[in-house]
Amino acid sequence: NGSVQMESVLLYTFLEVSSDCKFREQLHSLQGRGIVPFVKGSYCYDDEVELQTDGNRSGHLQNGELVLAPEVNEEVVRIIAAQLAEIGDQFDKEIQARVVNDLVQHFLNENLSGEDITRLLSEAVEGLAQAIPSDMEQEKAILVLAMVLTKKIANTMPSLLQRVFSTTVNYISQQLHNYIVRMV
């Protein structure tokens, strides 16, 4: 799905270029597991793609890199992710540890459905968005907050990266897809 792919690449690149990312190894392993498409310029290599039983590699590869849907311009996504990461660094200090720790506990609770986790993430993001200066677009603030929370949760507990990454991609895709399309 091209849209979720765009959100995945945006979140992945945001996390990759963010300062204070303590889970780079786990982040790069998301590509090897097919959770994130291969992104040019990232630090994941062709030999990390799993071989299928027929001897072919998973995904549509060209020169060792996944070919993204045509509507995903990687360079534009990379530039936008870097700009959002700068904003995220400013927001980072505003997010209280309690909010992050509560979300970590929710993500650790395997009895919560994906829908419940997404709702809890959404509530946390919207609560934090209330404190963001009104001179910033609300959608941009929500996008950055969701991505910063992803980083902070994964920094707190790297083993949650896959679950929080997938949840955030779903949340962004549901709530902000049109905004991202306009941005990219």
Automatic annotation (TrEMBL):
Listed InterPro entries: Bcl-2-like_sf (IPR036834), BID (IPR010479)
Gene Ontology CC terms, in alphabetical order: cytosol; mitochondrial outer membrane
Short name of one Pfam family: BID
UniProt xrefs under SUPFAM superfamilies: Bcl-2 inhibitors of programmed cell death
Predominant location category: cytoplasm
Location(s), subcellular: Cytoplasm; Mitochondrion outer membrane
Keyword Membrane: yes
UniProt entry keywords in alphabetical sequence: Apoptosis, Cytoplasm, Membrane, Mitochondrion, Mitochondrion outer membrane
Alphabetical GO biological process terms: cellular response to stress; intracellular signal transduction; positive regulation of extrinsic apoptotic signaling pathway; positive regulation of intrinsic apoptotic signaling pathway; positive regulation of release of cytochrome c from mitochondria; release of cytochrome c from mitochondria
Name the record gives this protein: BH3-interacting domain death agonist
Biological source species: Nipponia nippon (Crested ibis)
